[in-house]
Amino acid sequence: MSKPKNSRRVGDNEALAIGSNLRSSTRKLNLVAEQIRGKAVSTALAELAFSKKHIARDVKKVLESAIANAENNHQLDVDSLVVAQATVGRSLAMRRFHARARGRAAGIVKEFSNITVVVRERAEAVEE
């Protein structure tokens, strides 16, 4: 006997990809995620390709993974995909210290983040 199959976390016309432990704080990563929310996939890829933010490269990889999942696993039309959700969450935090004057120490927190990108096929394209 095998385990029962897990139900899908997203709808039939959606696909998702998760990027975990990205080396950026959630506030900085959310700025990049806001740029692509609700946009067509081709527009979102162009925005990320020309973004000056360093973390935009990693977000672009996650978006490309979501597109590939939609195309290969769920047989969705790539040309009609839209970024439905781009959610950011906290991950681990490395704690370091910085030596200061008079033998004191100052704490440094190097944060990591997770991002989940959900792409959805447009409703107009599904009806046609």
General description of the model:
The chain is α+β, with helices and mostly antiparallel strands. The chain has one domain (14-123): Ribosomal Protein L22, Chain A (Alpha-Beta Complex), CATH 3.90.470.10. The protein is built from four helices and three strands; from the N terminus they run E-H-H-H-E-E-H. It has helices at 26-36, 41-49, 56-72, 123-127; strands at residues 14-22, 81-99, 105-121. The chain has a three-stranded antiparallel sheet with strand order 1-3-2. Helix 2 (41-49) packs antiparallel against helix 3. The chain starts with 13 loop residues before the first strand and ends with a helix. The relative contact order is 0.25.
Topology, please?
Elements (H helix, E strand, L loop, with lengths): L13 E9 L3 H11 L4 H9 L6 H17 L8 E19 L5 E17 L1 H5 L1
Antiparallel strand pairs: 1-3, 2-3
Helix pairs in contact: 2-3
